[in-house]
Amino acid sequence: MDKKNAMRAGTVAAGTTLMMLLMSSPALALTRDDGDDPGQGLSLMETLGLFVLTPLAIFLGIVILVMIFDKSKKLPQ
């Protein structure tokens, strides 16, 4: 009975994935919408700064704040 449920779940997952891939065709992105006014593209450095360095800086800032305001007792050594 387990095999039957596993096969059913796999079939549903595969069918759902296939339908999602077919419905979100990249070809639909080629047509412009009304009012669409794209700006200039980002350079490599701007992209890295926006999507890599900025999240890392935010993460490190949170880590530093947590370490500064940590109120737990230090373990004796």
H/E series: HH
Strand residues, percent: under 5%
How many helices?
Answer: 2
* Mean pLDDT, all residues: 86
Radius of gyration: 24 Å
- How far the N terminus sits from the C terminus, by CA atoms, comes to 56 Å
Poorly predicted runs are none
* Outline: flat
Briefly note the structural class of the backbone.
mainly alpha
Total number of β-strand segments? 0
Helix fraction bin: 55-70%
What's the SSE blueprint?
Blueprint: H1 2-23, H2 44-68
Which features would summarize this protein structure in a list?
77 residues; mainly alpha; 61% helix
Summarize the structure in words.
With 77 residues, this protein is an all-alpha fold. Helices cover 61% and strands 0% of the residues. It has helices at residues 2-23, 44-68. The radius of gyration is 24 Å and the shape is flat. The model has no long low-confidence stretch (mean pLDDT 86).
Briefly say what this structure is:
This protein has 77 residues and is mainly alpha-helical. The chain has two helices and no strands.
